[in-house]
Amino acid sequence: MASRGKGAIVGVDVGGTFTDLVLLSPDGRVQLAKVPSTMDNQAFGVLDALDAAGADLPRVDLVVHGTTTTTNAVLERKLARTGLITTQGFRDVLELGRRTRPQPYGMTGRFSPIIPRDLRLEVPERLLADGSVRTPLDEHAVEAAGRALLTRGCEAVVVHFLHAYANPAHELRAGEILRRFWPNDHITLGHALLSESREFERGVTAAVNASVQPLLERYIARLTQELAARGYGGDVLVMNGNGGMVSAARVSREAAKTVMSGPASGVMAAAYTGRRAGIHDLLTYDMGGTSTDVALIRGAQPAVSNEIELEYAMPIHVPMVDVRTIGAGGGSIARVNDAGLLEVGPQSAGADPGPICYGKGGEAPTISDANLLLGRLKPPVGDGDDKAMRAHVEAIFAEMLGRPLGLDAIGAAEAVIRVANTKMAGAIRMVSLSLGADPRDFALFAFGGAGPLHASALARELGVPRVLVPCRPGITNALGCVVADLRHDYVRTFNRPLDGLDEAEIHRAFTEQIAAGEAEIGRESIALDGIRHIHSVDMQFIGQTHLLRVGLDTATPSRAQLQQLFERAYWRRFHVELPEIRANLVNINTSVIGLRPPLDLSTLIDPAERRRALGDALRETRPVRFEGAWFDTPIYWRDHLPLEMEIRGPAIIEQMDTTILIEPGDLARGDDEGNIIVEIKGAQP
Amino acid sequence: MIDPITLSVIQAGLQQVCDEMDLAFSRAAFSPVIAEADDRSDGIYAANDGSLIAQGARGLPVFVGTMQYSTRTLIEMIRAGKVAEPQPDDIYIVNDPYLGGTHLMDVRFARPFYRDGKIWCWLSNTGHWPDTGGMVPGGFSASATAAEQEGLRLPPVRLFKQGKLDREIYAIICSNIRVADQRIGDVQAQAAALKVGEARLNALLDRYGDDTVAQAITELRQRAARQMRSFIRQIPEGEYRGVAYVDSDGVVNEPLVIDLTITREGDTLRFDFSRSSPPCQGPMNSVLATTLSSVYLAMRHIFPEVPISAGAFEPLHVIRPEGTFLDAQYPRPVSGCAAEVSQRIAEAVFAALVEALPDRVTAAPAGTSGNFALGGFDPDRGRNYVMYQISGGGYGGNADHDGLTNGCSTIGISKAPPVEIMEQQFPVLYRHYALREGSGGAGTHRGGFGLDYEVELLRGEARASFVMDHGRFGPQGVLGGRDGAPNIVEVWQDGQLHVPEHLSKEQDIPLRPGDRVRVQTPGGGGYGKPEKRARSLIDEDLRLGRYTKEQIRRDFGVDP
Predict the structure, then answer these.
(1) Which of A296, B98, B190, B462 is the least buried, fewest Cβ under 10 Å from its Cβ?
(2) Residues in contact with A608: Cβ distance below 8 Å, sequence separation at least 6, in sequence order
(3) Is-contact B341 B246, C-beta < 8 A?
(4) A41 touches chain B (CB under 8 A)
(5) Which residue among B200, B224, B248 closes a domain?
(6) Which residues in chain B have their CB less than 8 angstroms from residue A576's CB?
(7) Which residues pair with B544 in a beta bridge?
(8) B429 touching A, CB under 8 A?
(9) Is B356 a member of any domain?
């Protein structure tokens, strides 16, 4: 394993609005940068961020990159022209989906498939469910279809045959035929990414992969070229949606895995920060302008799902950090409905025009505006006329919300925050429950621009005893890039009753997965501290369709052990015992993780800036509204806080990238990693 | 008077109690119809009259109105001494359609929720069991003529007594249903969901106080009513008529008419079905609870903003359609009511209101659940099986866009099973599974397209049954739009084509290996005049092979 490890490490995350960067020098110095993203070519934003951080590229060892290239491409359908070659009779599978509708009520809604109908071609071939051949592959038809797709301007192609998970021979053969004349490597075989039954889900996953592959490849090529031109001689690693990294040279082969790249980095940073702070079970809460991402970390490991649905009827079934999005952010709009009830979201003022207090012409009351009226946020516009802005926001709140609710503007603002917090807390509770976890057993990890402003209230609502606010909540995703490990995930489907299974076969499967992962990691030239394996099994009672994941601390479990662990997990989740019914072992999973050397996070805030005494970090005192009363509230500057300190709420801590609200009675203290941990009054641990 | 903010908070809290029950039920269930298709619903109902307090957001829409009637009937029967008094930790089971239900397969559990030793409310749920006995596996008979042929009918009895499953009652149930060995998992899941609800509701009451929550419930009900009334005022005063047809009842091959007049009077709507067909011989009768629920779910499709609560239904006055097939009395067979007749009722509501609310109401959707059951013996595996295929169809066009292709039934939200899973489990081969070209009704915004699939039996003998609809009449187009294509069922027996006499309904059609069944589901109705459709959209439809040139010429009146 080649290790240079003498130069700097750069983590850079391209988000929808900003490109964030963390640069760690070998001497422990940290540079941060936040620049506007350049969506037409994200590489420019990355270069701007490197400039802003004063990066000396020849002396940088490693650039790790989180990207939204593929996410945006799918959501905006700005995809490479892609064709599909599929089993005769089944070209519409990608368009028909699973027969649903976007929402339970309302008979409207639309869906546009990833690959349009005129680029979906059929060839004679048919396998049965056991993998046997009913109709042999018509090789001439494959060639003709491939050539037709090229004529129609396709750049990438998917081969997706029914039951290829059971027997990939036809897909492999079709791939060989296409490779003879297809002008590039953009050929995705359906079974290669996901070898499981369910033709719609497997087909969409493959189609997403193929249609973002050329875009990702071009982007990575441009970026590495630009970096090389500036003297960078190291590797570029790209963050995958599973929270592990993979080298730029290989990332586009499985491009679909990068679809959750950005959110996954944030969760990885949270897991890392929590592990170093000794808090291993976290709910991550990333609140931005239009939406909020929530994920679960157990035992310092983020929950990973193989069944992410990116949007309506867009399942991407490769292992990705299970990040769920809630439609509430700082820009969520509040209104009073026809029943006279206050509603917040899901409509959002977005970034443009944004909340009223942005001064860009927004006229709809939002969560951010409510925070402004309550003294929690300062107006972001720096033209000095805070008073006029406040008055403007206040007038709108009084008219649009206060009047119908019978409240004044301040009362309306408090109401907006309360309703928004209830809604977010409810959504977080549902996310954690659907992952089989009780939120009260977790700490809340607050990040994103708005997360630390709401976290304490949410924690109280959820019964969560502690909130962890990292040093740099606003650049957590970029931090995730520098702390993430290398990671490769393997799934092998057994789907057989546990009783009849050969234990040796299970053990052999785990051994093979370990070997494959270690081989992959051996090919990367990254300094590592060691290699870890995580094993789990997915089980169910025979006859069920949902799975329960059961973690293992051994790669050689006995059948009796598996049965017992499963029954225990089932009881914990449902309080149901079913001695009458036997268990099924569905999947065997291994993640092989290359551990990166540890980083000291406390230097994310320049130690030289820190003051000795808490009082020296005080900036001002201003009235802030809590629980229906104004409190003279001290406002501290985060960078000036002593590492060891205690603040009893009410208090506000401001910093470049966020605002932390400490509510009356809560206790905030600093730890030696530079985190702030807030103990929530009234939440029972 | 409770402040509006606490009100919003409690509203969200009650909703989450129900959503958590839904989640627990689906996750722990065994039957794919519950676990995958979410054919279930959980809610909270008032202690005095069973009226709906809150219901899970992802519950099956057709249960939105039925469960309060089921709970109300149970409360009345307890008061009248017809059913045993509850004890804490008891759970009643009931599936009698005439006691506030749908069809026999929808089994309701009801659990009294106690505070300080008194019943504070009821927690109830409904789950669709894969079988409850009767003449046809799965219960969807196309030609039953009495309730007894449709399955085991359970009056309300306490299946759980103070937390313990009554093994004697359970044994009777298991002796009367098919594939009984796995039902224990579903029974436990259905009970566990109510237990989850109890824990969460207790937490909510502890947090905000019993009186405050009770006040909030009253207030929320009033507000939901007010909200519904304000929407109703958007409809110009007057009478609106909508007519929908059920192909036939499965026994007598004549259409059944749903003739609905809606009258807007002040801020209420009156629904009069009295001119509809009389009770029918076959299983297309609807029990009152299902008829009411169908009206409610249709209104909720039109006004999804109004939260699900008894208050939302208050301004909707449905005159009891006595003497019609929409108020079925024992022993009229009813197995088609929840899946098919309910959708025709919703369609009549849409048809009546589309001119008054052209921005909110769509043209008619495919409106059939597409139940196709295949029961047989698989010689390779040496066992009997029952296979279900449900299918979607096109949605109606609307003011904003074309109808969705292959959407689920109006009264459901369930997913169809993948072809690969079906072929793994049953001795069948799908020859195609495709978009049904040309099926979307022409319009300014055309209907969505139906599904076209064909299944071949590979081995063993089997019998096919269909309970579908819209075979005789396609889903209606509106405001000048054309109707969507009707449902077509074709059975190829030994190379000979057989078309069911009732088009969309027939049971026990014998099949042998190599025989095939082809189903083409309805397309949605078109919205607005086809001549006004944008040329670019017509060109796209043509390029994508959705219509032929002839169809475009004929149905859209333009030269392609």
Answers:
(1) B98
(2) none
(3) yes
(4) no
(5) B224
(6) 28, 188-189, 192
(7) none
(8) yes
(9) no
Judge whether B380 lies within some domain.
yes
**Number of domains making up chain B:** 2
CB contact under 8 A, B430 and A89: yes
Q: Kind of pairing, strands A583-595 and A646-648? A: unpaired
Pick from B61, B185, B401: CB nearest A541: B185
The Cα–Cα gap between A397 and A260 comes to 37
- pLDDT per residue, tens digit, chain B (560 aa), is 787 667 877 888 898 899 889 988 988 888 777 887 788 999 999 999 999 999 998 888 889 889 999 999 999 999 999 999 999 999 999 999 999 999 999 999 999 999 999 999 999 999 999 889 998 888 889 999 999 999 999 999 999 999 999 999 999 999 999 878 778 889 999 999 999 999 999 999 998 899 999 999 999 999 999 999 999 999 999 999 999 999 999 999 999 999 999 999 999 999 999 999 999 999 999 999 999 999 999 999 999 989 888 999 999 999 999 999 999 999 999 999 989 999 999 999 999 999 999 999 999 999 999 999 998 999 998 888 888 888 999 999 999 999 999 999 999 888 888 899 889 889 999 999 999 999 999 999 999 999 999 999 999 999 999 999 999 999 999 999 999 999 999 999 999 999 999 999 999 999 999 999 999 999 999 999 999 999 999 999 999 999 999 999 999 999 98
- Are the CB atoms for B372 and B465 separated by under 8 Å? yes
10 Å Cβ neighbour count for A665?
A: 16
- Do B516 and B369 share a structural domain? yes
Domain assignment of residue B322, yes or no: no
Q: Cβ–Cβ of B434/A89 closer than 8 Å?
A: yes
B residues 224..263 contacting A (CB < 8 A):
224, 226-227, 230-231
Note down the domain range covering B77: 4-224
Instruction: Note whether A108 contacts B402, CB cutoff 8 Å.
Output: no
CB A271 within 8 A of CB A302: yes
Among candidate residues B224, B251, B280, the one where a domain is terminated:
B224
A chain contacts of residue B546, beta-carbon cutoff 8 Å: 117
User: A24: part of which helix (H) or strand (E)?
Assistant: strand A18-24
Q: Which of residues 205-224 of B touch A (CB under 8 A)?
A: 223-224
The residues near A370 (Cβ < 8 Å, ≥ 6 apart) are A334, A397, A412, A413, A414, A416, A417, A420
- Residue B355 inside a domain? The answer is no
Q: Which chain B residues contact residue A133 at CB under 8 A?
A: none
In this structure, chain B runs to a length of 560
